[in-house]
# Entry
Amino acid sequence: MNNEVTLLKGNEAIAYAAIRCGADAFFGYPITPQSEIIETLSLLKPWETTGMVVVQAESEVASINMVYGGAGAGKRVFTTSSSPGVALMQEGISFMAGSEIPGVIVNVQRGGPGLGTIQPSQSDYFQATRGGGNGDYNVIVLAPNSVQEMADFMDLAFTLAFRYRNPAMILSDGVIGQMMEKVVLPEQKPRRTEEQIRKECPWATIGRTKDRQPNILTSLELKPEIMEARNIHLQEKYAIIREKEVRYETINCEDSDYLIVAFGSAARISEKSMEIARGKGEKVGLFRPITLWPFPERQLAEIAKGKKGILVAEINAGQMVEDVRLAINGAVPVEHFGRLGGIVPDPQEIVEALETKMMRK
Amino acid sequence: MTENDIISPENLVYKKPELMNDTPMHYCPGCSHGVVHKLIAEIIEEMGMEEKTVGVSPVGCAVFAYRYLDIDWQEAAHGRAPALATAIKRLWPDRLVFTYQGDGDLACIGTAETIHALNRGEHIAIIFINNAIYGMTGGQMAPTTLIGQKTSTCPYGRDPELHGYPLNITEIASTLRGTCYVSRQSVDTVGSILKAKKAIRKAFEASMKGLGSSLVEIVSTCNSGWKLSPAEANEWMREKMFKEYVKGDLKDTTNLK
# Structure
């Protein structure tokens, strides 16, 4: 068991973890605040060790379509970007969902809209959890709150993507991407052999052998009856994912009067807010969705029973709060606190929001 | 002589390539796509690459190319085929990977993907069908539409003042250091079909030998879009298209026959 502790940025951890979990290729385009990922990969030269391919593409549009091509050929392929770049990728992500191609996208979010800012934000929650591109589809979304989870979620994202033949996204942000923390990297796994890929991915386009029909990866179908059936198949798959893949963390929820619901870096900050509030004698717990889609709606509704109020703390204008309100369905008052434009809230601000929006109301 | 005597193997002079299935094609009678599909199927068989080929089809008239050739296919988003092919080939270097794209797909919305894949020298072959029009969507102006040519979005003829000039992307490709073979052909006569086949074969072989990227443009007819009979379309192509899009090898550093 590898338990060597190293000190890495979140972005660097993504690069190291990807090589170690047997990724076959990275395709990406530089953008702040995540360029360390492609820089680290380029410095580590994994093509000389594990054989992993690293290509700097001409755009994010090309990057995601390279992911489509490579993952469609059965390989563990990923790309990384930040908000404006991920916006450009939405076409490719929608095509991957429609063609049922597994691949991993890492979004180290920055503030928007438009070119926005290079400072951290969580304002791509809607884009990530609502599909983002055209059509009825969902992407599996994991939200790390530490450098350790950046490393751990790489392999998990690939596993989920291939388990369900669906794109999976790690929705991080500039805080997690840029901060340095202790991290234990995963064990080095070998890349899969052609034999393993043929077995695990019978749908992969790697050359038609005589014993099977051609494999065709496409999202196109002009007959509406067939297209509806394909959509129903996707929806059934999403229902299974909703049932089986919800992940979340609870801290001090059982004995609490109030809940903070937060994900990613906002959850990390909220842990401190919870401590401060508890120091003042207020019973506050933290509910942290780890999968943003599927959202832990039933779990949250159950835990929220009998609470006096829920504060959703986000680094955006109020996005996940909609999912929280849908889950809670009016049973408990739900308020939102957020900072915008690249401002990262202080733990004290969240405590004050708890007091003014919930406790003293 | 009975019919069975006539169709005996020793009398066989021509047959449909086995990779071509019997699915009825959606292409209009008179269109060049069917001939180019057949050439690709023949070449893959002649190279013995039936089990090691991955095609990437475009958005446009050839969007359903995957229905007709019994190889593995990926269907790309509009213009993105060279990006898909880049990844497939990098990850499976012993596979034959080609894209099949029209002028709107390759020379308009996918210009960046096309030029950068070629300039990186990816070991892929790009087959480019240039019929100077958007056929699938009903005959709109393409980047390769000729000056004066009428389409549904330039109904008074392409006017450079309004619409800019025809984009000659094959010439651009020939200037890129990543390309090893760039050629422009047509399939309007038996002779030109044989030349086109030779060009596509060279592009495929160059990709397997890792010599660089290749682009073979096939100047093609779209008699439906041009609103001409198939015979008239061939005439129009020879008279007008070949002047703007001059046939022949634009670049060949392969040393392949």
Notes: Strands of chain B lie at 53-57, 72-75, 96-102, 125-130, 179-186, 213-219, 248-252. Residues 132 and 145 of chain B are 4 Å apart (CA to CA). The mean pLDDT of chain B is 96. The interface with chain A takes residues 50-54, 56-57, 63, 66, 69-77, 80, 83-88, 90-92, 95, 112-113, 116, 120 of chain B (CB under 8 Å).
